[in-house]
């Protein structure tokens, strides 16, 4: 097993591109908390408002609620720039419209680092990826690659099962748990029998487990898709 590399540090702005509310919290929030604590700028951009994501709740109610939960969640890890693009939850596609929006955001925010979702078809054999995630990440990669070299961010990472880089998040676990637990309504419907804080703790502990290939410390992990090794 090869050791993971340290995540790059020579950058100031990161753009987190995801499909739905709560997507940043499952694998990225602890790293984001560390970065904002170091004075770096992190911006969240979400393709949808997650309006189809709460069973039994009408989309016109669920969308604003999930936006509010995402903003509260982001604040726990030091992010105060959160935007929603209005693409349809559950029907996100790698269209020219979506690629154009990604391009516009890359050029407007001018990050050095872009973080997005795992875009492969399966997390593991028999564990399919969400179709929205697959389509969204394909659009992000296509838009990234289409930018002229002199306007392209330095790195593109995805939050996937075969990481190449890691961030020591030993001191950011509690912030990440609070960040995920801010999705109170969503999580309480998803698993009504388990307290939201316990759900959040279990997920964050799983996603930031100590890594033998990274010095045995709690780590948030990312796979490099583009940029220098």
UniProtKB/TrEMBL annotation:
The keyword Flavoprotein does not apply. GO terms for molecular function: hydrolase activity, acting on carbon-nitrogen (but not peptide) bonds, in linear amides. Pfam families: PIG-L. One of its GO terms (biological process) is glycoside metabolic process. It comes from the Bacteria. The keyword Zinc applies. Keywords: Zinc. InterPro entries: GlcNAc_PI_deacetylase-related (IPR003737), LmbE-like_dom_sf (IPR024078). This is Hydrolase.
């Amino acid at each position: 097993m090869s050791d993971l590399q340290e995540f790059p540090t020579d950058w100031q702005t990161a753009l987190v591109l995801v499909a739905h509310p709560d997507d940043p919290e499952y694998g990225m929030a602890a790293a984001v908390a560390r970065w904002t604590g170091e004075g770096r700028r992190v911006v969240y951009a979400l393709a949808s408002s997650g309006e189809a994501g709460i069973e039994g709740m009408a989309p016109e109610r669920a969308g604003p609620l999930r936006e509010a939960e995402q903003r509260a969640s982001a604040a726990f890890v030091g992010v105060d720039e959160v935007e929603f693009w209005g693409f349809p939850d559950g029907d996100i596609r790698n269209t020219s419209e979506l690629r154009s929006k990604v391009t516009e955001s890359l050029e407007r925010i001018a990050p050095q680092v872009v973080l997005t979702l795992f875009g492969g078809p399966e997390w593991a054999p028999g564990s399919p990826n969400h179709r929205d995630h697959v389509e969204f990440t394909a659009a992000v990669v296509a838009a990234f690659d289409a930018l002229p070299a002199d306007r392209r961010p330095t790195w593109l990472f995805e939050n996937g099962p075969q990481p190449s880089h890691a961030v020591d998040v030993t001191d950011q676990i509690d912030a990440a748990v609070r960040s995920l637990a801010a999705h109170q309504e969503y999580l309480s419907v998803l698993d009504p029998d388990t307290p939201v804080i316990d759900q959040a703790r279990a997920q964050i502990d799983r996603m930031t487990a100590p890594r033998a290939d990274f010095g045995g410390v709690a780590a948030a992990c990312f796979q490099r898709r583009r940029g220098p090794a």
